[in-house]
Design brief:
21 strands; TIM Barrel; eight-stranded mixed β-sheet; eight-stranded parallel β-sheet; alpha/beta; 27% strand; 24% helix
């Protein structure tokens, strides 16, 4: 039996409290929270936390890449990214792929899906397909009408390892797609939409109960009468208490005021942190090559922006956020007990994705853990009790 004994730590119990304690891990599982000192097995590896925070690993529901690695590019970049993410406290992710309409799309998806079980580092419980059934292209999504036959082709190519699919309520014929996703226990995320109130409510009624990178690519519906503000997706999200949201908390993609508004309307339990990260995330300030035919200039706190001689130089080209920086931002922006802020990166996304063994510190759950330095960089990261960073 492999055992770890964490002592002299501040235990983060998301949504509950942060308090001094100790933790026993046995065979990759949290065996006991705050056991008595004499319960430490003689063969356990003792880890002195030196008074630092110890909490469940962060879960990123929406990430396209990290460092120099874009997940769409194939299994090798995805595997490299999964190994890199624990350096930022991430122990699980829904690897996000944009299914582009090209002759080899299904083959490329199959190659990525086939490689998932053998990857190390952050766990990948499933893929997040951003599209193709979206109404607005955003940063490059295809816009395809809802089609159950095509949906089944996509899911089969992904070896039925799809955890999330992002859709738009204003995509033609989208309601049967949403209903089918729910039947298959694939979580439909709302995004890339200018839906009116009726379209938004119909999608929610069909089972779409989460909005991803909320506010980003959520423009107002067209104004049809001067002086009358149209009602759209934002109002429908706020009006339906069962709908949850996530934000890119880098201070660039969405203003902190919008996050505060959602917090007031929906409560902390309904808000999750994501990165929507891509090439450049987690790298020092500088210019980096990408698979897209142009470089990006990355500066922490300012995103990743198109560089070089490109006519759109300076325009955002994805997020450069990492999850630990997002948590640090939320701790600074929100007047909440810290344990509730930590829930936005741990317990809340785990609940939204149906990952019942992740996101909390409780007996019988997976020992996905991070020991945090004072600057919110990991001193150590463990996945299923195995140290993968630090």
């Amino acid at each position: 039996m492999t055992a770890l004994w964490f002592e002299n730590v501040q235990l983060i119990r998301p949504g509950e409290d942060i308090a001094p304690g100790c933790l026993l891990v046995e065979d990759g599982t949290i065996a006991r929270v705050n056991p008595p000192a004499d319960a430490c097995p003689p063969n356990a590896t003792r880890i002195d936390g030196k008074g630092r925070l110890l909490g469940p690993g962060l879960i990123d529901m929406h990430t396209h890449g990290i460092g120099h690695y874009q997940f769409d590019a194939g299994p090798e970049p995805l595997a490299a990214g999964a190994k890199m993410l624990p350096a930022f406290g991430v122990t699980s992710m829904a690897a996000t792929i944009v299914p582009k309409q090209r002759p080899d799309m299904l083959e490329r998806l199959a190659t990525i899906a086939d490689a998932l079980p053998g990857m190390d580092g952050a766990q990948i419980p499933g893929l997040h397909l951003e599209g193709p059934f979206v109404a607005l292209p955003g940063a490059g999504c295809d816009t395809v009408p809802g089609d159950l036959g095509f949906l089944h082709e996509l899911l089969a190519a992904c070896r039925h390892r799809v955890l999330v699919m992002s859709i738009s309520p204003d995509t033609p014929n989208i309601l049967p797609v949403i209903e089918r996703l729910c039947e298959l226990q694939i979580v439909p995320f709302i995004t890339h939409t200018a839906a009116n109130g009726d379209q938004a409510q119909a999608a929610i009624d069909a089972g779409a109960r989460h909005a991803t990178h909320f506010y980003d690519v959520f423009p107002l519906p067209e104004q049809t009468e001067p002086g009358v503000r149209p009602v759209g997706m934002l109002e429908a999200v706020y009006a339906n208490p069962e709908v949850t949201v996530d934000f890119v908390a880098d201070g660039v993609h969405v203003q902190p005021l919008a996050i505060k508004a959602a917090l007031t309307a929906k409560g902390y339990e309904s808000i999750s942190l994501i990165t929507d990260s891509n090439v450049g995330a987690g790298l020092p300030e500088g210019t980096y090559d990408t698979p897209w035919g142009y470089p990006v200039y990355v500066k922490p706190g300012n995103g990743a922006r198109i560089a070089g001689d490109h006519p759109l130089k300076g325009v955002l080209a994805g997020s450069a956020l990492t999850m630990n920086v997002g948590i640090a931002n939320l701790l600074q922006w929100l007047k909440l007990p810290p344990a509730k802020v930590w829930a936005m990166g741990t317990a809340n996304p785990a609940r939204r994705l149906g990952l019942a063994r992740k996101g909390r510190l409780a007996e019988g759950l997976d020992a996905d853990l991070v020991l945090w330095n004072d600057d919110l960089t990991p001193a150590g990261t463990w996945v299923m009790g195995k140290q993968v960073y630090g």
